[in-house]
Amino acid sequence: MDERIIEIMKSVFNTDAIDTATDQHNCDKWDSLHHLNLIVELEDAFDMEFEPEEIAEMKSFKTVKKAIESKQ
Fold first, then answer.
1. Tens of pLDDT along 13-38?
2. pLDDT score of 68
3. Of 60, 58, 64, which Cα lies nearest the Cα of 1?
4. Which CATH superfamily includes the segment(s) 2-71?
5. Contacts by 62-65 with C-beta closer than 8 Å and gap 24+?
6. pLDDT score recorded for residue 12
7. Domain boundaries, the chain
8. According to a count of CB atoms within 10 Å of the terminal CB, is the N or C end of the chain lower?
9. CA dist., res. 41 & res. 59, Å (int)
């Protein structure tokens, strides 16, 4: 799952500088528009929908992974 999330993040943020430590503070391209694009791509890839509260918490690779795991 980690690699799949990382590949989606690389695609959305258009950078190879993504790893498990990536978050909104160390990724310059992680703005509100890219955040929404990330959510859409994750929902499509993992066939799930996130609630607004979950989306607001998804501010790093770790919180994204946690949100996906909680729905599986």
1. 999 999 999 999 999 999 999 999 99
2. 98
3. 64
4. ACP-like (1.10.1200.10)
5. 62/20, 62/23, 64/5, 64/9, 64/38, 65/1, 65/2, 65/5
6. 98
7. 2-71
8. C
9. 15
Q: What are phi and psi of 12, to 5 degrees?
A: -65, -45
Phi and psi angles of residue 23, each rounded to the nearest 5 degrees, phi first: -150, 180
42: left (phi over 0), alpha (psi -120 to 50) or beta: alpha
pLDDT band at 58 (very low <50, low <70, confident <90, very high): very high
Q: Which of 15, 16, 28, 21 is nearest to 2 (CA)?
A: 21
Give residue for tokens 């950078």.
15
Measured between alpha carbons, how far is 30 from 11 in angstroms, rounded to an integer? Answer: 12
The answer, as to whether pTM is greater than 0.85, is yes
